[in-house]
Design brief:
alpha/beta, binds BIS(adenosine)-5'-pentaphosphate, 8 strands, 50% helix, globular
């Protein structure tokens, strides 16, 4: 299965992608995590991406698409992928369609996780991330058991530079201008299903899996 999780910054794509990938045994590809890893390693790609990420802008399509195409050519992607944070522009969506088509594959489902703006702001400004495994936490709604430490791997938790209020506002603007048109793009293909992203993480996970199974059954 090739599944896309679409949603505004803070909608819960990363949180749900980890759960759904585990449940459906899919590779999890998060372009934001890949860029942050490249920054940690100090590569040319990481330095370039930082210029855009710290302003809340999208990294240019040619850079992002090249990185993604290289990643999906890896053996762990053959059984299926959950895409988290990609595609984010029409050009990226078309590039992904083309690349999968060459392998005789296609996107199966697109889950649009919908959350109101005010809630997104609250989620992002209280978010903490594990430096090691990238698991997300929230200081109020999903705090770690031990302050500052990841429950899963014991890694150090930190706040992302782009989770400052001014950058969050810019990221939301960019989402509505450049990524939201993908809702129409995938609605036209009949592959988009909308899931309510408000509620407990567990309930959103159940809603997402139910929607995916219902759509898959409807296709048979
Ligand atoms: P990226 O890392 O992809 O960030 P994003 O899309 O802005 O999404 P977030 O990671 O902020 O949110 P999320 O939806 O994953 O929510 P999460 O699960 O963490 O991208 C960062 C930057 O990289 C971009 O701005 C861009 O510059 C660049 N980039 C990346 N991909 C690109 C691409 N394809 N093209 C060009 N540039 C690209 O949850 C958020 C918080 O809410 C957490 O604290 C979590 O614990 C909490 N939470 C989750 N679910 C719930 C719930 N149900 N109830 C209450 N709280 C919840």
């Amino acid at each position: 299965m090739y599944i896309i999780l679409l949603g505004a910054p803070g909608a819960g794509k990363g949180t749900q992608a980890v759960e759904v990938a585990r449940e459906l045994k899919l590779a999890h590809i998060a372009t934001g995590d890949m860029f942050r890893e490249a920054q940690k390693q100090g590569t040319a790609l990481g330095l370039k991406a930082r210029e855009y990420m710290e302003k809340g802008k999208l990294v240019p399509d040619e850079i992002t698409v090249a990185m993604l195409l290289e990643r999906i050519s890896k053996p762990d992607c053959r059984q299926g992928v959950i895409f988290d944070g990609f595609p984010r522009t029409l050009a990226q969506a078309e590039a992904l369609d083309k690349a999968l088509e060459k392998q005789g594959k296609a996107i199966d489902e697109v889950v649009y996780i919908k959350v109101a703006d005010e809630e997104l702001m609250k989620r992002l400004s209280g978010r903490w991330i594990c430096r090691q495994c990238q698991s997300p936490y929230h200081k109020i709604t999903s705090p770690p058991k031990v302050e500052g430490k990841c429950d899963r791997c014991g890694g150090e938790l930190y706040q992302r530079d782009d989770d400052k209020p001014a950058t969050i506002s810019e990221r939301l603007k960019v989402f509505f201008a450049q990524t939201a048109p993908l809702i129409d793009y995938y609605t036209r293909t009949g592959k988009l299903v909308e899931v309510n992203g408000v509620g407990s993480v567990d309930n959103v996970r159940k809603g997402t899996l139910t929607a995916l199974r219902r759509e898959a059954a409807g296709r048979k």
